[in-house]
Amino acid sequence: MRLRITFQVSRVPLLYRNAFMSYLKEALRSSPSGEKRFQQLFHYENRTNKAPKPFCFAVRFLHDQASFAQEKDAFTLLSPLHFYFSTSDTALFVDFYNGVINRKIYPFQKGDFTLNYPLSVNFLREKPILRESALFETLSPILIEDASHQPLLPSIDGDGERFVKELNYQTDAMLRGIRGEGLRWPLQFKPVHIKKEVVKHAVREREEDSRVYTFTCFSGSFYLQGDPQDLRDIQVLGLGRRRSQGFGMVEVVET
Length: 255
Fold this sequence. Notes:
Low-confidence stretches: none
CATH topology of the largest domain: Alpha-Beta Plaits
Structural class: alpha+beta
Order of helices and strands: EEHHEEEHEEHEEEEHEEHE
Largest sheet: 4 strands, antiparallel
């Protein structure tokens, strides 16, 4: 289940993923059932809930590259902004959708960034996956790191075996945490058009203030081979680390 929410925005901050994390939470908290779900997702006995989240999101737009080269801290948009949200949880989908169309949360503000009521809200369908292979494309960059937080990139870093091993480990843990069952078969990864993407993102650890980190990710298109149900769940839930923070959302191009 996924949504595409379209906004008219003129400028977007460099750390826009953090702004949309706040927007997502605000939309959830706009109803009693959404507030309860917010607490379940993000808190557990007065602590931050680190369990895998059953959703991912992406923010897409075209921007003026010459302007960004001068400013560095904000994007000047040349197109409407699209916010994509995908989840395997029907109740979460309903709560979030109800929040998105609730006019009481607008204008939504995060610092100098403002979102007015959406231009449109569209329901999107996942493509059926019936075979053991599918061509995927990233909607937001995928972050794969090893246990020491060193980034791993497919083929670019020359160590495809380490990348595939970590991809399988992280995907197995994600699926096990969300659906109660890990990967049915190991995934095989074949890059098609892949590029390295460096992303700045603010992270708050425990009760400390947020710190801005630089993450080395990848984006582009690739084939995944595996169990068809695993591939269908990956289409909905995404891949890699920090999926609930604007990373790892994918769409199926061809099955």
